[in-house]
Amino acid sequence: MRRQLRAHVAIDTGVVTLSGQNLHATLEIRNSGPTPAYEMTINSVLFMQEINASPSEPPVEDVDLSKTTVGPDTTVSSQEQLFVSNGNLHGLRDGNIIPWVTGRIRYRNVFGASRRIDFLSRGDVSPNRDETWILTHYRIGRGSD
Description:
With 145 residues, the protein is mainly beta. It is 6% helix and 58% strand. It has a single domain (3-143), classed as Sandwich (Immunoglobulin-like).
């Protein structure tokens, strides 16, 4: 019974868009469980890498973020922005460079246990190729602190 009462937190959707010389990443994090996720924080980093390179993700810093409670069947958004140089802008547009988002979600469940989700998501070009990348999970790790 205890397992059924926990918060079920996951990244629901993610998208990266290019506007001028700025990349904007938006992650939708959803609690689909029957109880709240307390003291939730989301730390993430948007970065770019050549398409054929293994991901070399920057460190995700643990900064003091405002904590929020995410109720059952509720979604919250997290946003990141990154300036793109002219050279990388051409690489993004021709498909040689892709955006990535790495990060960490922390929260406490109804029993007071600390939970953590570490993620790395890769931007795949959307079907209509309109300078939008759909984030797909490259690696997800779950644990407790």
